[in-house]
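Box 3.1. Reading complex inputs
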Amino acid sequence: MATLHTVQGGVTAPGGFLAAGIHAGIKPAPLPDLALVTSAHPGVMAGVFTKNRIAAAPVLLCRRQLRRHAGRAIIINSGNANALTGRQGMLDAMEMRTLAATHLRLPVQSVFVGSTGVIGRPLPIRHIRRAVAPLVRRLGRAGHRQAARAIMTTDTVCKEIARRAAVGRRVLTIGGMAKGAGMVHPDMATVLACLTTDAAIAPRALQAALTRAADETFNCISVDGDTSTNDTVLCLANGQAGNPVIRMGTPAWNTFYALLRDVCLSLARQICRDGEGCTKLVEIVVGGAKTDRDAGTIARAVATSLLVKTAFFGEDPNWGRIAAAAGRAGVAFDPAGLSLSLNDTPVMRNGRGMGDRADRRARRVMRNREYTVTLSVGNRRGHARLWTTDLSRDYVTINASYTT
Amino acid sequence: MATLHTVQGGVTAPGGFLAAGIHAGIKPAPLPDLALVTSAHPGVMAGVFTKNRIAAAPVLLCRRQLRRHAGRAIIINSGNANALTGRQGMLDAMEMRTLAATHLRLPVQSVFVGSTGVIGRPLPIRHIRRAVAPLVRRLGRAGHRQAARAIMTTDTVCKEIARRAAVGRRVLTIGGMAKGAGMVHPDMATVLACLTTDAAIAPRALQAALTRAADETFNCISVDGDTSTNDTVLCLANGQAGNPVIRMGTPAWNTFYALLRDVCLSLARQICRDGEGCTKLVEIVVGGAKTDRDAGTIARAVATSLLVKTAFFGEDPNWGRIAAAAGRAGVAFDPAGLSLSLNDTPVMRNGRGMGDRADRRARRVMRNREYTVTLSVGNRRGHARLWTTDLSRDYVTINASYTT
């Protein structure tokens, strides 16, 4: 496996990409709320989207455009999700696309649109109309950070990464930016990520790599594939690295996939760490289940349990709650075979607690900002790994009056 | 349908029942933590239990005993769940049963056991050994309130009810007590309820009535049938009303069922109102779905959404979150047919918001302590109704250090 290197530059780290962010007026001044990423050359586009029945207008538009798997630019606004906005919402998303295409002198079909923010309010398209021209003028290689800032909602830090790896005699770079901070439950994990790469890759090979990488990273922190109205992960590959076109099932694909997964995992963990009001990042590992699917179901039940998450926040070694959450997952296992550790500290073995000394040690582990909870539910080979956060008083404060 | 009357007396309201509660020492003095309910005459017992894979020892014991459908007494401790306690836990539950049977001079098989409290810690059976004799001495018709207090955990108020209705020429009474306060999510709704009645009823008829009544009440507030390690609802019928034995499919069964459901609903609503740190009791009604099951799935998705529940707490008319939660339920419906009201205030019709004036009116509705959210997802006949609560900062505080 090729060595991966972290490099500077976010979405403009790969050759041929420019980016910009600007304050359009959807959010209060001077917060940037409109981002643009473009490639100097035509590229291949892949995307992964929310499975919510109520998908936002830009998601519907992207899905439709993706049939062609070709693209040159991505325009994203924050502050308004353009979701549950009916026919007008779709017209607004299309106008946003046309505005970017016109000013970039590109075909409309090569521009992809993303939105994130409040649901159910009309998109204030007039602000975007005024902002696209200055946004295009600002495009540059240094614009990646401003673009990453312009897609933030409740995020407290801006999330970027770029990594590089050798494939044959060429070096490939993948850059990315993401927003997302509400990682404490499946239905609030609005994730929006924009990935760029200079790799030359076939459309199907890119889509397969993105689908699998998103599944193992973004879908493991959002804990459920079935998330918000606006979840969008787009990846644009412009081929500027000059490598032979990567196809499915080749060693080059494996390297590309590993690089892409690595970039996605970095962004996913950044999102997790920036969970709304979160103070902990906890890895949940389930082993010994009958199938990976069973293990995943148990891991999700633990990762989404409010009682477990509040115990994480309180640094309270109430491991009975973890076991009880596993028990209600709807997966058959023998409680007498259940074991549980926090990092290397066993607290429960074969269905019974290990006593007060173990609990005291567990409490010390829980004082860490990041740790791992390992459940063994039997002696089979099914395995799963997820990331979750604690649930704090601040989470409630942040979300109690989001629209006000 | 017969008229129902509320009467005083909780579990001792029906003839032939006695109750008591005492401080045994599991909880800090002087909190009562051991309850006993007995019938002067042999009776018919029915029960409904948790579906959690990790059922507590007393649940396993009750299930086994229920094969005989006969009973005379119920002993319940709070402060310790006797769950995840292995073989010793089962021995302790059996000893608790034997202690009560010995002091009451009853066959062991006629005594049922319940426990609620912290999971995974050995039951301090020595406290119970000392307390059963004085507990039995205290038995009386006035003991219902002390018994109801003795089963409380994080409850802030004690929950009792008794109702009466005429069946033919006889008057039947059903009394009940319950504990439960963590109603904000499926996996934390430990419900323990003890129901008594003077009705003469066949074992299968009693079990059928209890199963259905619990399904439409306790399982609609706990939002999911798949709850804690200790959920237990027991009903003991001693036949002292002298009515002809009630059998399935008769008008008398229907009246009995309606009375039982009414008692369960009252207890369930008391539990909901006493939700940990809760300030709101919100009814979720879903109509127009293809099937009742689909409607229930959508209602559950809304009722368990953290974003929805924090918006309830913040009195924030962020109805987009309600729609988004419905959308992620995994049930197919046309978003363009989605309508939504808070009490009589429509906020969304046919997939679109009704504007700022409607939102302002919705905000006024949300200032109430109790209100109804109605979703219409189409024009079919599937229908469901659930109760949920808000999620407050206090909820987090209460649960962050439950064991400490």
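In summary: Chain B has two domains: 5-273, 281-400.
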